[in-house]
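Q: I'm writing up a methods section and want to include an example of the input and output format. Could you take the sequence below and give the corresponding predicted structure tokens, formatted cleanly so I can copy it straight into the document?
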Amino acid sequence: MLVIGIAGGTGSGKTTVVNQIIGELPKDEVCVISQDSYYNDTSDMLFEERTKINFDHPKAIDFDLLVSHLKELKKGNAIEQPIYSFVEHNRIKETVTTYPKKVIIVEGILILTHPDIRELFDIKLYVHADSDERLIRRLRRDMAERGRDLEEVLTRYQTTLKPMHQQFIEPTKEYADIIIPNNRYNTVAVDLIRKIINQRLIENLNFIPK
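A: Here is the clean output for your methods example:
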């Protein structure tokens, strides 16, 4: 089994890189785990309180559960991956049964901030993009997919996203094995990653996914 961590700032293009890597692998040999699924359960809070949570701070993530789930997958066991609603600012009751595969991709802005998570990654990637480009992508996504209005997104970016990026996310570049500039489709970087994955898989032929 090969566990790949993909980090980078909000709107940096992590999902694009994930999809590029997935496109280079057999469909039944890879699964993706999103850090966003592991935001803390906030059922004990009122909705108004949830909206004020700093979701770009490491304390917003249930790293204990994420570490536990990754360890179970590495043992060959299935997990029940949470589902998080950005509209409700909380997990929903349903979960997604996730089975161990030859390649497990974990993506999220804060995944390289936690030492226990970093130790579980065989390859650590950081996706870099210009700050203006990241803001534009964040605006488009939050307004189209998460029900936010323009003023809310801009306010959150200025008061939370930008300072949290500078404090917690940008410094994690030093832990990355590969930094990918993602202002366009990066065929060279993806091809390099594909070759590394294939080589590592050849070295671990004894793993049989469920």
